[in-house]
Amino acid sequence: LGWKDKFVLDAEGNPTTVTQQVFETYQNAKQEIRDQLNVEAVQIILTGIDNDIYSTVDACPNDCEMWKA
Prior knowledge:
Elements: E1 2-9, E2 17-24, H1 31-48, H2 51-59, H3 63-68
Antiparallel strand pairs: 1-2
């Protein structure tokens, strides 16, 4: 994420392109990048919680059961 070069058509019907600086955010990033960010976020969460909390969450089949635990 951050500033990226994006190639856009100079004008309709014109084959030349120009480069624009676009700030890439989670919303406008490619799906592969979003998937990797989601994996990294889950990894950070799982490594940052205690084992007893992880065991409780891992044992729950769905969100509702997790809130009850």
